[in-house]
């Protein structure tokens, strides 16, 4: 009997082992949350750093799943420092990786030269590496060209949130989360977490929590605004829905179930930009995957959903260009163009739109939206925050995504296809809202970019023993 049980137990242990370090990371982040502001929270961060020394892939796999809580920071020690779960995981991983690298050099001082050679080769094989470095340079330059230096503190904070941390996450992900199985685990965790966030948001909405707007209650969950919740949900929704379209077998229904839950929450945000971008993007995904019947079914479901919204909330849907948010966006775009005429080269700086818009550029018709902090258009936003360098980086990024999408379609790589579709959908919504410059959106883009990267050939020569998990 033992002879029969031993192989079965061994197989189960092998199946569970890859999830062990991510599960430990998730539990430690939960401990930091439960003990916010106490010494136990600091201990959880120390243990998380120790885990990252041993297995950085474990802490990084959990990172996408934490994006739904970026607006829920906690005290991580006895001081006043507040970090959200993504920052906790990223800080612990960076500290763990740096400690491991330092110990490697101390143990073998001559080892840094061959490692540097491998690092150069690895960097050259990454599709988005130059874009990441360019963004870091553009963000640093923008800190010295802020239109109103009295608000430099806001620019520095946004530099940390949407440039420094996401770029660091990208490079860490590319180095330590290279195995396809680990990338699938990261995407699975992200999709499951978004379903949980969606269910919580729906439950909170049923309890009456949300924002009253144009005759409807718009759910927002743990996010500051329904639009912020919609922006978060659409990327994991597009991941799950595209995988449900592209795959076959039982796994397809699991992806579809998650997409259904997230879609329900997205609909209840009543974000018209998110709904339209998701429907259009999923239509494209259906075409790319070569499943016409599933594409038609999606189109029918989208038309029925839109018709249901129109019947349930006609004022919200029909007010788009009748004095509603659509008309206000036209005024905001006009003001943004006027702002660019005054600051064409360097823009106004990171997180500076509000401080220029309200005093100088707001139109009388747009006075109700005088406190908006961004121009509701990704192109205008990149240009105003980062100047012409930001515009050039945006165009370069678009070209890279198109190439990655084309490659995924040619090779039939379903994970790469779903990842590229998620980026495209977010960018499409960004044409009428915020497409990148929020902490969760910036991290989401660079994590998706890292998942799109092929496993560099140069790292195949790295000794697995030095990777330690």
Task: Please sum up the structure shown.
The protein is an all-alpha fold and 469 residues long. It contains 19 helices and four strands. A hairpin with a 2-residue loop joins strand 3 and strand 4.
What does this structure look like?
This protein has 469 residues and is an all-alpha fold. The chain folds into two domains: 90 residues, no CATH class; 318 residues, no CATH class. The chain contains 19 helices and four strands. The strands form two sheets. Strands 1-2 form a two-stranded antiparallel sheet. The protein starts with a helix and ends with a helix. The relative contact order is 0.12.
What labels would you give this structure?
mainly alpha; two-stranded antiparallel sheet; 469 residues; 19 helices; two-stranded antiparallel ribbon; 2% strand
Percent of residues in helices: over 70%
Distance between the termini: 34 Å
- Structural class per helix/strand content? mainly alpha
Rounded Rg:
23 Å
Which stretches of 5+ consecutive residues score pLDDT under 50? 5-15, 463-469
> What is the number of strand segments?
4
Shape: globular
Instruction: Calculate the mean pLDDT score and round it.
Output: 86
* Strand order, sheet with most strands: 1-2
The profile of the biggest β sheet is: 2 strands, antiparallel
Strand content: under 5%
Number of helices: 19
| Element pattern in H and E | HHHEEHHHHHEEHHHHHHHHHHH
Reconstruct the topology from this structure.
Blueprint (H helix, E strand, L loop, with lengths): L1 H33 L4 H16 L1 H7 L11 E2 L6 E2 L1 H23 L4 H14 L3 H15 L8 H25 L3 H27 L4 E3 L2 E3 L7 H21 L3 H20 L2 H18 L2 H21 L1 H5 L6 H18 L10 H9 L16 H34 L2 H17 L8 H14 L11 H4 L2
């Amino acid at each position: 009997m033992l002879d029969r049980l031993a192989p079965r137990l061994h197989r189960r242990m092998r199946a569970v082992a890859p999830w062990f370090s991510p599960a430990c990371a998730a539990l430690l982040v939960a401990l930091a949350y439960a003990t916010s502001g106490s010494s136990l929270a600091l201990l959880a961060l120390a243990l998380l750093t120790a885990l990252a020394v041993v297995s950085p892939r474990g802490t990084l796999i959990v990172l996408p799943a934490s994006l739904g809580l970026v607006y829920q920071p906690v005290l991580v020690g006895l001081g006043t420092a507040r970090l959200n779960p993504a920052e906790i995981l990223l800080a612990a991983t960076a500290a763990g990786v740096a400690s491991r690298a330092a110990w490697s050099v101390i143990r073998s001082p001559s080892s840094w030269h061959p490692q540097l050679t491998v690092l150069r080769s690895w960097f050259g094989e990454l599709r988005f590496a130059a874009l990441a470095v360019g963004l870091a340079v553009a963000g640093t330059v923008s800190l010295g060209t802020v239109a109103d230096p009295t608000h430099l503190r806001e620019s520095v904070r946004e530099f940390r949130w949407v440039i420094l941390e996401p770029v660091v996450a990208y490079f860490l992900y590319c180095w330590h989360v290279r195995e396809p199985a680990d990338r699938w685990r990261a995407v699975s965790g992200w999709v499951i977490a978004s379903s949980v966030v969606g269910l919580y948001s729906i439950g909170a909405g049923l309890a009456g929590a949300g924002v009253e707007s144009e005759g409807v209650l718009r759910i927002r969950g743990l996010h500051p605004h329904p639009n912020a919740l919609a922006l978060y949900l659409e990327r994991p929704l597009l991941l799950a829905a595209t995988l449900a379209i592209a795959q076959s077998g039982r796994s397809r229904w699991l992806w579809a179930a998650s997409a259904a839950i997230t879609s329900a929450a997205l609909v209840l945000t009543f974000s018209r930009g998110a709904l339209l971008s998701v429907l259009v993007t999923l239509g494209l995904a259906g075409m790319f995957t070569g499943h016409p019947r599933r594409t038609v079914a999606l189109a029918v479901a989208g038309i029925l959903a839109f018709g249901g919204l129109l019947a349930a909330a006609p004022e919200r849907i029909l007010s788009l260009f009748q004095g509603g948010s659509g008309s206000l966006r036209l005024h905001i775009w006009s003001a943004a163009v006027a702002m660019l005429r005054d600051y064409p080269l360097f823009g106004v700086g990171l997180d500076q739109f509000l401080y220029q818009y309200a005093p100088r550029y707001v139109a009388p018709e747009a006075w109700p939206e005088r406190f908006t902090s961004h121009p509701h258009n990704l192109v205008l936003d990149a240009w105003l925050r980062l100047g012409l360098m930001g515009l050039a980086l945006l165009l370069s990024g678009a070209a890279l995504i198109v190439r990655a999408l084309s490659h995924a379609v040619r090779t039939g790589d379903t994970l790469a296809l779903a990842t590229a579709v998620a980026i495209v959908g977010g960018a499409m919504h960004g044409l009428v809202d915020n497409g990148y410059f929020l902490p969760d959106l910036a991290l989401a883009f660079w994590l998706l970019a890292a998942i799109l990267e092929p496993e560099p050939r140069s790292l195949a020569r790295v000794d697995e023993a030095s990777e330690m998990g």
